[in-house]
Design brief:
This protein is mainly alpha-helical. It has a domain of 47 residues. 31% of the residues lie in helices and 5% in strands. A two-stranded antiparallel sheet has the order 1-2. Helix 1 packs across helix 2. The longest helix has 10 residues.
């Protein structure tokens, strides 16, 4: 089955990124590509879709706030070290 190949410019447009960002993704191994020749590369739409799916994120909802910590009261019979006779 023949697959449609997209030029780097077309692939970048489809991903809504610059060609430079696309090159960086390719160099880092984050996106698959087809080596058409020694100096020419192309991208399959399915590989672009796979990259997009790998980037889907979801923000965590508001986190419950923790109640304030209760202050520990010290008994009044505690004498600071500096005030002790010794």
């Amino acid at each position: 089955m023949a697959s449609i190949l997209l030029a780097p410019q077309e692939a970048a447009e489809r991903l809504l990124i610059s060609e430079r960002t696309l090159r960086d993704l390719k160099r880092k191994g984050l996106i698959r590509y087809v080596a058409v020749s020694a100096r020419r590369i192309a991208y399959r739409p399915d590989d672009l879709d796979e990259y997009v799916e790998s980037q889907v994120k979801q923000e965590a909802g508001p986190q419950p706030t923790t109640p304030p910590r209760k202050q520990v009261r010290r008994p009044s019979d505690i004498i600071p070290f500096s005030k002790r006779n010794g």
